[in-house]
Amino acid sequence: MPSATMNAQEVRAVWTSERGSMAKETAENRWAKIIQGSIDDIGETAAAADVDCQKRAESIAIQIALKDIKKGIEQNEPLTPLRDDGKVDIQEWNKKLAAIGECSWINCPWLFGECYMYRSIQRILNSSKHWQNYDVFKRQKDASFVKSRAAVEELASRYMQIVTDTRLAQNESKEVAKKLLFIEMTEIALWGNATDLSLLANLTLEDLQNLQGREAIQKSQRNIVDNDTDDVWAYLQRTAGQASRQIDIVLDNASFEFFTDVLYAAYLLEAGISTSVRLHTKEFPWFVSDVIPSDVESLFKHLDSSECFPGREYLDQLIPRLRKFFQSGAITTTSDPFWTMPFSFHEMPSKAPALFKELQNSYLVIFKGDLNYRKLTRDGLWPHTTTYEKALGPLGKESGVKILALRTNKSDVCVGVPTQSKVDALNEEAPSGAWIRNGKYAVVSFNEGQ
User: Fewer CB atoms inside 10 Å of the end CB: C or N, the chain?
Assistant: First the structure.
């Protein structure tokens, strides 16, 4: 078993050949299906009556190229250098592959292999004439959002009734209630892909202001295996007098989760916790459902649709409020090429120094989701009791980056569990590592970078 004193360079990254790992299961059972879904999506779009002959003809070549990737995965072929598509990052990908050495789809570092697969899809599209800006995952994202109708309408109701209630904002004696509201809004962002909201406390304004609120919050937090919420709140309270408090949110999934992230950003502004929020998207379609720039307007298009969301009472109050934040510049979006590179975030200081400097200057950087957590921790097989600060490596101690990770556990890495006895209890409660893979457990991990 790896030692809790190991440093980042000594901790082995999980490989797709790791017996019993989520990495192996994903590579063997999910990757080929994702490629087939992309093939089917291209075919459906190309078959539409309004698609011109040249675009339809080009779609055939794209589908053939995607089938070659699928075949390579199914037959466990070696990973080979990416062919040039006119983008400057190809050289970095191929350098990284050369550094790893000989590997194949079912015998490679999971983090690299999965990133390599999505970059391979994009390389094919980049090399085309008519499909360069096409999102092969848009249909899935749209369908997922529409299915979350009840959750969207419920959250709109709760936001307008609680967050915007001036009784809470104006009464200085309600500090406990304000903290409970912060916890609940943070948990909404944390469990943003659990559209039934079953893991939330569902507090009313009155609940927030009495003991029932505290009891409900405590119950809702039992599945958070590393919970630094109190530390985050203490940091925010201690530094509330800073003139500039820009919060950066490195996004994960589009659709319902992105809706919860925008709500969270709005809450941080309305509560006076932040003076501005910057949302970081991916530059191109990534890990099926990650937010790309076009998903921002798509979010509002769906929210505006009474066909998608017929319960309009609170949505019609909420949407103009959210749009105003974007129009005023209080909420902005940005993309950086580093987010779609094959590197862990341990390499950010050397591979993306300008981005690293920006994050050092941020009031708080919130990383959403499993992939960002894997990159923060170098996708390493750390002992689960390893401190979050240690697993962050160069982004941890003395980095100057204030990092909050909101992540539901869906892979092979999890750190920050307080004690080995807690790990043992989790293994008994959810055997065979289920608690780090099934999405029913989570972390709220904070490090101040001092």
Answer: N
List, for residues 210-230, the tens digit of each pLDDT value: 766 678 778 878 999 999 999
Tokens coding 159 = 């936001």
Least confident of 95-109, 168-182, 317-331: 168-182
Of the candidates 444, 445, 20, 448, which has an alpha carbon nearest to the alpha carbon of residue 192?
444
Residue 55: CB atoms within 10 A of its CB come to: 17
3-state secondary structure the chain: CCCCCCCCCCCCECECCCCCCHHHHHHHHCHHHHHHHHHHHHHHHHCCCCCCHHHHHHHHHHHHHHHHHHHHHHCCCECCCCCCCCCCCHHHHHHHHHHHCCCECCECEHHHHHHHHHHHHHHHHHCCCCCCCCCCCHHHHHHHHHHCHHHHHHHHHHHHHHHCCHHHHHCCCCHHHHHHHHHHHHHHHHCCCCCCCCCCCCCCHHHHCCHHHHHHHHHHCCCEEEECHHHHHHHHHHCCCCCCCEEEEECCECCHHHHHHHHHHHHHHHCCCCCEEEEEECCCCCCCCECCCHHHHHHHHHHHCCCCCCCCCCHHHHHHHHHHHHHHCCEEEEECHHHHCCCCHHHHHHHCHHHHHHHHCCCEEEEEHHHHHHHHCCCECCCCCCCHHHHCHHHCCCCCCCEEEEEECCCCCCCCCCCHHHHHHHHHHCCCCHHHCCCCCEEEEEECCC
pLDDT digits (tens, 9 = 90+) for 280-290: 999 999 999 99
From 375, 370, 369, select the one nearest 411 (Cα to Cα).
Answer: 370
pTM, two decimal places: 0.95
The C-alpha atoms of residue 292 and residue 223 are separated, in whole angstroms, by 30
Nearest residue to 146 via CA among 295, 257, 290, 256: 256
Q: In this model, does residue 241 exceed pLDDT 70?
A: yes
- Asked if 42 and 66 touch (Cβ cutoff 8 Å), the reply is yes
Query: What does the pLDDT look like over 289-324, one tens digit per residue?
Result: 999 999 999 999 999 999 999 999 999 999 999 999
